[in-house]
Structure formats: structure tokens, C-alpha cells
Fold each of these.
Amino acid sequence: MSHPLEKFKHCPKCGSSQFIIHNEKSKKCLDCSFTYYFNSSAASVGIILNKKEELLVAKRAKEPAKGTFDLPGGFVDMHETGEEAITREIMEETALQVNEAIYLFSIPNLYNYSDFLVHTLDLFYYCKVNDFSTLKAQDDVASLQFIPIKKLSIEDFGLPSIQQGIKWLKEKEAQQNRLFNRY
């Protein structure tokens, strides 16, 4: 596997081409001694259930994994919390207003964006929505639908972290009658 900073050829501080591998997660400039560490980008993922405890599933309109199932979400912007990001992303992709976002767990992921492999840390949130009347697929979502959790097929989801999240959700659902009754 290539170094995660392989495509970074010049030092971002001084512009030198003497920007070499320092270790498995960083490069160092031989001219100005600047060391750049490659860290994961934060992303948010929303788990939204209707009153029947069916999961809101999106179909991806763009690559990567175009045409496969996904959950609403996206990258966390600078100066934004995970909760703010998932609320914004859900509004952008579904036109739904999140009333509360409750952090559940995180999963590391690799996301291929424009032929660049982005390491992400996907933050999963249980998102409470009171009004589904505005539900509409938009932004990078081709369609939206509610699916009973028991009928979800992990293989229908195209991104590895989402597959792991769906597996968690199915296991959680199998352990109890109501998924999030403690909230």
C-alpha cells in the first residue's frame, strides 16, 4: 500500500520538493524541517427511525459507491461540531430538521474522493426527527426510503463503515424490542 501522503509532492509551508516520508503517517521537509501529519477527517452519519422503527436509507447519486444504499451524512466542516454537522447534512440531503442528535459510536473508514483516498472517522448519531412531512431527496442523494431493520441487507450498502454501522444496528435491534428506548 502506498503512503497516504504520496500525492503531496511539495512542502505546504515552504513549497520545497524535498518533502519526504518521515514515518507511516507523516512527511517532513528537508529544507524547512516542517513535519506534516496526516490525520483522519471527521464525518457524520445519521441513524433516523420513523415511528415504526424503520430506518431512513438513502441511495447514493454520486461516486463513490453510486447507486448503493447509504445513510444520510457527510464531512464535518471546520469550526463545526459533529452534532452541527449531522444536523446540517441531514437538512441538505433530506430536508428534515433534526430535533436532537445523540452520539452512538465511531468507525474508521477509507473514502475514495476524486481518486484520492481520504481516511475518515465516521461519527454515528441517533437523530430524532419529529416531522417527516418535508422529506425529500436532494444534494447527493438519488432517493430516500424507510426500510424495516430486519429487512436490511448489509451488502446493499456500498461504504465499509456504513456496512459496519448497519451490522451494529441489526445486532442492537435483535437484542431488544425497541432500539433506542433509553433515549
Note: Helices lie at 82-94, 160-175.
Amino acid sequence: MFFARSKGVVGLDIGSATIKLIELKEKKGGQYQLQRIGIEPLSPEAIVDGSIMDSSLVVDAIQKLNETAKVKSANFATSVSGHSVIIKKIELPQMSPDELDESIQWEAEQHIPFDINDVRLDYVTLGEAEHGQEEMEVLLVAVKREKVNDYVSVISQSGKSPVIVDIDAFAIQNAYELNYDLDPLKNVALINMGAGVTNINMVVRGSSVFWRDISFGGNQFTEALQREFNLSFDQAELLKRGETVGSYSAADARRVLDNVSEEMANEIQKTFDFFSATSSEGAVDELVLSGGCALTANLLEVLRERFGVPTELLNPLRKVSYKDFDPDYLEAIAPMLAVSVGLAIRRVGD
């Protein structure tokens, strides 16, 4: 289901702060055209730490998006991330697809820190088996069954069919590969910064080799502003986006935001250090940022200076054509759309 081409789907990124919707039309030559787009804010209490706490608020937001964007398609793809998601690359003895299918649950039990009965499990073999090769690589994905059910349920309650549940880190990679040429010589860190969770996907010489979710995102910036200036959540959100709130301006907020950006850099550094310690793939050559949090004032510059490598915002619509959409608006929100674009290029029955 997670790695679940034929019929197109609507990409729906259910984030903690906003829900993003994208529908693309596939054209000849593997090109895509933007058909529909929508962003709907969510109350902070609707989703906490990636878990849906108030499903009615989420369902209402999805229905509103469907109405305003005039979505006709019934097939939706969504994705999940966070502590309920485990991604492991494991090595197994060479075996036939049938043998692997029969043994994968037992193998998964050795690598998944959850009760195997409590998870939805999927896997895919990596690469082609070479003659005489004794081992095979398998990518194993497990997600808490309860989390999958919650996300599937809100889409169903909105009147649509949830046909694919993917992983945020994989959706980001799909969006990146659609719009950028993979460099066979570079190690690229795809860093998707949401409100509550940041997904990191290490793409080494064109292949994804390491994934980690960290519990740090846009909410930390908002909460810091709340504490510093004694603001409500909504006021702090406006100030974070550069608007003046009372007597406080974007210039007043800059010092607070930069301090949190340094904390974000520390969290990313921990992941890079762990990656370096557990692999022999070398240092990171480039950072590509996405997600709403990536638009925080001066965050990109702080990370560029901290890591000393090229750092840019991901534009998931870079090679997507469109008509009747405001180009300035699309450019402004593009980094927020990475997951939804990555989902929208999936196909029923993948």
C-alpha cells in the first residue's frame, strides 16, 4: 500500500498546521500540468505530534478544499511520518518473490520495534539480483495500524477514496526527482520541515539510503515567539510570517527566530552525525529544503552558513506546466507543496 500507474490520484498532504491538495494531469513524455491546488489551515488542536486528535476538524478542512478547488476525482493519496513510521533497509539471503512474501513478516519482527500485529507492513526489493549474489536488499516499511486507519478514515469521511498511503520522505523524493536531475556524484539531504515533524531523506549519488524524522518544526518557532512576546498562538503565527502584531515587528521577531533556527541546525547536525557514523557514504554536499517551516525568515541562510554547502528551497512545480494560476502565488507557496506534489504523481495500482 505504501509503494501503492494507471489512474491518477489527488495528492493530499495532511499536515499539523495546514492541509495541502494538488491534482496533476500527466501529459505525453512524462510531463505534468497543474489542474487543482488548495491550502487550508488547521486549528492547532486538530493534529498533535502527527496524531489526529479531532477528526471532525480535519474532515471539515478536506471537504472545504474539495469544494473550493472543485475536485471531481474520487481517488486520493496521502502520506504519514513521525515516530509511528519505521523504515529499514535490510539484507536477506537471495530468495524468490514467493519465498520473500512468505517470510517477510518473520523478518520484519526482527527489525520493527512494534508488535507486528499492530502495524501495516510493506516492502520492496532494491536492485536486480546478480548471478552468484548471495544477499538481496529489501526496503521494509512499517506504520502503526492505528495511524494509517486514522488518516484513511478522515479521507473516507470527506466522501473520497483513500487509495494510496505513502511516506512523507518518499513523497518528497518523488517531487525532487520530478523537477531536478539526480547528480550521481553528490550526497543531497532532502529536508522537509513541517509544523511538528521534519523529515530527512539522504539521497546519495542518486539513490535514497537513509531516512529519519525529527520532532522539530514550525511549532517551535511559533512557541518561542509566544513566550518572548506574550502572544497567542495565532498572533505568534502572524509575527512569524513577517506581519506586525501590536507593537512587535518582523525585526523584533528576527532574534528569536534566529535562535530557534540554530536549534533546528543542531537537530539536523545530530542526524548528519548519526548518518556519518553508521555509513561510509561521505559528507553532505547539498541541502534542499521544503515544507512551510522552510519559509521562516532567515532559516535558509542560517543553515547555509552552519553547514557550509549549497542550500536551496525545493520548487516541486519547477517542471510542472500550468494555466490560469498566479505565478507569483505559486512561487511563494511552492516549498509547502512538496509532499502533495510527490503524492499527486502516484497512480492507482503502483
Note: Residues 227 and 323 are 43 Å apart (CA to CA).
Amino acid sequence: MKILTTQIINGQIIENEQLQSLHYDKDGTERLLLNLYPQIAFQTILGFGGAMTEAAGSVLCQLPEGERQKIIESYYGKDGLGYTLIRTHMDSCDFSLGNYCADDVPGDIEFAHFSLERDNKHIIPFLKEIKRISEDFKLFMAPWSPPAYMKTNNNRNGGGELKPEYYRAWARYLAHYIKEYEKAGLPVFCISTQNEPKAVQTWDSCVYSAEQERDFILNHLRPALNEEGITPLIMIWDHNKERMLERSEMIIDDKTNGIVGAIGFHWYSGDHFEAISLTHKRFPDKLLISTEACVEYSRHAREDAHKHAAFYAHDIIGGLNNGMHGFIDWNLVLDEKGGPNHVGNYCEAPIMCDTKEGKWYKNASWYFIKHFSKYIRPGAKRIGHSLYTSQLEACAFVNPDGSIVTVVHNPSREEIPYKLRVYGHISDCTAKPQSISTIII
């Protein structure tokens, strides 16, 4: 078997690869075990990915062309993270250069003024390149706000609700948006009804109750998509985990069950892994996708390297072990300030760029995400495991090619031994302090 390890020591990223043998467990080892049970299978993995925002695209455009290509390859190329999922926003979000929408003319039911000028400058070209190099391109799209005139607060920012008289118009707007992307050669796999429908933000946002979201999907969005002859999955919620079960139960019923295909969630309200598990048990045929995750920008990135990377490892393992089918990080790249962001909501990305120098570097989170995305491939099935200690976190999978992949995370500052056991064979292993390892059998 092969063991790939990334360890962070005093902010330094150290990668190591070693080969190790499995031998027959003739003595029936009982202690220090990490057991794998390939005969017990759970959910099928859709994939991993990140988000191409206007902010990310504008940062890439400030780099030399060769460096832009290297960054895209480092995510979606076969020698990179192996990403296959990509998310983008419909009209502006906080990680845009400012508020904008493709058509803000009231009454323009034929979309005569509709324009994807902003998308064509900073988003669509990079999506096309990602599609070209990705082995299994799946595009997720989400709106942050309808045009201001459609909302009760007459503003893209600050929450507000969609006015009832504009439900059909907004649904047709979203369907037209997707149709234009498909004309550009970018098929849309999934559309969310609304990013964070419970949040009133200082940036682009819109509030829906569960009843409003259900009505919009059933009576307006699905019919509008059908009229355009397009069939992306419809995702509900797309907000934090703590309410994903109740929200799903309020939306999915006999009428909407065949319409809703996915439930999205974010990590900003805490672990709530049990909520993922309960939602998966309640709605086993729905894709459960973590659609957004990031940490706030820090000037002390070196000192915080392991802490931020460990957030990702902990959340991805917790999500996968409770029924999550896919994970999508937030911005693919950001500048040296953690932006641009039109309301100053600065964050970190796995790759940060120095736009003045035309250079870029990988944060520790990039290396930790790799242990999942590169080796757990689309179509992999999670398998059972048991672990002797809560000091370690682990998850395990069987890939479509038959390889067994186990990810082991040690967030502590102590070296922790364990014995990997599978099919009656065993191998002595060690989880180094503040490390993550992928074991491939």
C-alpha cells in the first residue's frame, strides 16, 4: 500500500510518500486498530470542487497567462486536485467587483436587454477552460439576489423578499440565464433556488421562507425550466447545516419530491454532522452537497496554516461520514488582501495571488483538500470503518477502479500510532502530529 502524508510544522508544509506492506493478522490484533469494512457500502461520491466568482476571475486576469493556466491545472488538471465540480453565481455576489445583474429593466419579458457581459469577461472563459481539462465537469449555479425592482426592499443588498408578482418573471430570468450558458457550451448540472435564503446580508441577498421556496420551485421555477427544455437538478436550502433537515421536510412532499434533486449546505454555523446524517436517512435519494466553505482572511496565514487546513479536514471527513455526496469550496483564488469583495468581506482561498508581483502560492488548505479530491474519485463508495481513538479522524472509500482509499487526520500535536486492518491483513502506521494522510491499497 502507498501512504501519502502532509504535515505542517511551524507553518511549513512537508509532504512525504512511502510504500508499506500489509501482512496477515495471524495473532488477531485487538489494540490500536483502524478497521476497514469494504463489504459495507454507503453513499456514492459525486466529486469535489470550488467556485469561479467574478472576484476569482478578475484576480486570474491580473496574472500572466501562463500562471493563470497553472492555477487552473492545479485544481482541475490530472496532476492537480482532481476537481470536477464548479460553482458560480448568477449575477453579482459579495465576491464581485460591485452589484450588477444581466437585465435590470422592468417588464423586459423577452430579455431584449439581457447581457452576460460581466460573466463573459471574468467567469465564462475560465469555466470553458475548466470544462476542457476536467474529466467530469459539473457546473452548479446559484443566485444571490433578483434584480432590485423585483424585491420588497428595492435593493440587491440587505435581504428583502421576492415580490409575489415577480415569481414567474424571476423564474423565467433564471431559466434564460441557464439557457444562455448552455448556448455558450456550458451545460448546467444543478441550480440552487437561492444562496443562503435565511440570511440578511450587507451584500446581495434575498430571504425566502420554506413555504415561499416550495411555491417558487413547484409553480414557477420547474415550469420555467421545462419551457426552455432544460433539466438541471434543483437544489434547495443552500445554507447552513443546522436547519437543513427541517427545511427539507417543509419543502419536499408528494408534489415536490420528484422536482427537488439536491440539498445544499454550508459550514458556517458549526459541525452539525448529525443533521447531514438525519437528512440523508430522511431523503436517501437526494444529493447532499456542501456548496460553500471558507475561512476569514488572516494576515497571519503562516501561523494559522494548520488551524485553517484542519477546518477543511475535519469538516470534509465529518460530512462524508454522515452521507455527504460532494464538497465545493468557495473562491478558487483571491488576491493578497483576500478579495476583491465589494463590501469588504475578505476571506482566504486555497490559492492566494500577489497581483502586483504576478505571483501566487498555495495555502495549507490546498494540500489538505488534495488528500480527498485527488484520490477519492467520482463514483467512489464510502465504506465502513471503526477507529480505536477519537484523537484521529478518518473516512474510507472504494474507488470505481477497485482501489481502497483511507484518509486519516491527526489534528493534535502528538504522534499517534494505529494499525490499519482490512480483509484480515494488518499494517503498523503512525499519524504524525498535525498531519493528514491518504492510504491507497
Note: Residues 46-375 form a domain with the TIM Barrel fold (CATH 3.20.20.80).
